[in-house]
Amino acid sequence: MGFMGYLLIAIVCWGITPILEKTALRNLSSAEGVLLRSLAVAVCMGALMGFSGQYKGLHLLNWQAIGLAIIGGLISAGIGQFAYFAALKTEQASMIVPMAASYPLVTMFFSILLLGEPLSIKRALGAVMVVVGVVLVKVI
Fold first, then answer.
1. Taking the model in full, what pTM does it have?
2. Domain residues for 123?
């Protein structure tokens, strides 16, 4: 499958998931929601790695890669997911999801600052459009 097939699967999954999560959060705390979601992801990835044989390379990983992956998981899936669930629990999904989807602006900023990636006119205009979109979602 090419990148477009994978991208379409991701878009559909990410589009449906907030509806399921918001519905589940009616009966769960944000922490409970993150815990259950994380357990489901761990089981799914364990099965995927088992069936695909990708687990065989784990012993080749270096400590830097392991540490950065763990820190990224703690920041994103721990703190970030908890904050997202707390916002989703208290506000409309149709507002929270598009606003949360502005995270690439943070990535762009830190990619330029820490990785030395160039800022092109197209990327700058794209960032402005994202900000305008977030403002419109919030205001309308």
1. 0.81
2. 102-140
